[in-house]
Write a structure and sequence with these properties.
17% strand; alpha/beta; globular; nine-stranded mixed beta sheet; 11 helices
């Protein structure tokens, strides 16, 4: 019993030591925070006074590029874009907006398309979605994870903002952006290319914005409520949250081209889908083809992710299609 009591006393003493150490560290942290408050206030004031637009040149894949940030109230509200110039750029150079897939850890796929566009003499601009890359509310969270949210309102809100961001970026390019990119490309000859979620957003933007002269939509579909509730990537999460197709139908209706009458005006569209894709169900792929009846359709023998095996061919075909239709 005495040995057990001795061991118990030792454990209590060790526990008290850890509590003391933790308390000391917390006290130092409090002091550090108080000491840093003036500097933090200065940083905040400096940020508030900083310009609303940042354009930073860099180079990637042997191309001249620019990082464009249109400042917002929070990272989620900012608009980020990487603009790539072809080797020879001028006032007649077409521009392709590239909208990314949602959950990728980087922009490797989108940069492949940017290089392919440059080889065909076209500029490109890769845009980020809300809760993606630098636009995440919490940088520790996987890029794109919070886009889906845990409610239909959050998901619909991110869809709405994604469409608005693309249109706002076009407005900026046609207006204040001319200060930076006049003579680099022709905003009046703009096309759009999207993959997966990027293609869902891109097709909606093109449907309602006549400034988009051509489109390429890869691994896409219509009726996003069906995709979320029945697609293999999201249906388990939707069921776990108790969200069904009917719950999503109303909030996501503005982004369902199969339920809208769209005047495409003969603007050229290329659809590339994967035969064994379960993330974008077959029903949704058929609905999109019906919503864009004049579109050229190509199906590759692959599933959603394994379509990457056809990247070399897909990026070349997309660039050729847009170059021919933007001349």
């Amino acid at each position: 019993q005495s040995r057990g009591a001795f061991h118990q006393d030792i454990m209590i003493s060790i526990g008290r030591c850890w509590v003391w150490i933790a308390d000391q560290r917390l006290w130092r942290l409090r002091c550090s925070i108080l000491w840093m408050l003036p500097a933090f206030a200065a940083m905040t004031n400096s940020a508030a006074a900083s310009p609303a637009v940042h354009v930073m040149p860099f180079s990637k894949n042997e191309l001249r590029a620019h990082a464009v940030v249109l400042k917002g109230k929070s990272p989620r509200d900012e608009i980020w874009a990487y603009i790539y110039e072809p080797p020879v750029a001028g006032k007649d150079t077409p521009l392709v907006l590239i909208l990314p897939i949602l959950g990728a850890p980087n922009l490797w796929i989108e940069e492949q398309f940017a290089v392919a566009m440059a080889q065909r003499g076209m500029a490109s601009a890769i845009l980020f979605f809300p809760q993606q890359f630098h636009r995440r509310s919490f940088l520790e969270v996987t890029s794109g994870f919070l886009f889906l949210g845990r409610s239909t309102a959050t998901l619909a809100g991110n869809f709405t903002q994604s469409v608005a961001d693309v249109e706002s970026f076009l407005d900026w390019l046609a207006g204040p952006g001319q200060e930076y990119f006049a003579g680099t490309f022709d905003v009046k000859r703009t096309a759009i290319l999207g993959t997966s979620l990027g293609s869902l957003i891109g097709s909606v933007v093109m449907a309602h914005d006549k400034r988009i002269k051509a489109g390429v939509f890869l691994l896409s579909g219509s009726d996003p409520a069906w995709i979320v509730s029945q697609g293999s990537l999201t249906k388990k999460m939707a069921r776990k949250l108790g969200i069904g197709y009917e719950d999503l139908l109303g909030p996501l209706a503005p982004f369902d081209l199969s339920r809208q009458e769209v005047d495409w005006g003969g603007r050229p569209v290329l659809l590339v889908d994967a035969i064994w894709d379960t993330i974008i169900p077959k029903v949704s792929r058929k609905k999109l083809k019906s919503a864009i009846p004049h579109a050229k359709v190509i199906s590759v023998p692959a599933a959603h992710y394994t379509s990457l095996l056809h990247m070399f061919w897909i990026k070349g075909s997309a660039a050729k299609f847009l170059a021919e239709n933007l001349q």
